[in-house]
Amino acid sequence: MSNLAKHDMNVDYSKIRLSRSKAIRLKCLDCTCNQTSEITNCDIKYCPLWRYRTGKEEQDELNPYCAF
Question: 38 to each of 19, 33, 34, 35, 50, how far by Cα in Å?
């Protein structure tokens, strides 16, 4: 298990230099209440981090209703 599998809520992550993928992973862990299986099974595809939640970009159908 990686050191980011369960993160410490008492750590001030604003003072730690994180890679982009680790920051995304921490946000996903925060969103799923530290449930790593929920990150893999996440179905909130409108989340801007959804494609990157597993550490690599996942391909999906682009949402035609999402205009940037």
Answer: 22, 9, 8, 5, 12
Per-residue pLDDT 10s for the chain (68 aa) are 455 545 666 788 788 888 998 899 999 998 999 898 999 999 898 899 998 888 887 776 665 555 44
Angstrom distance (rounded) from CA 12 to CA 23: 13
Q: How crowded is the C-beta side of 59, counted as CA atoms within 13 Å?
A: 0
CA distance 31 to 47: 11
The tally of CA atoms less than 13 A away on the side-chain side of residue 43 is 0
Supply the pTM of this predicted model: 0.68
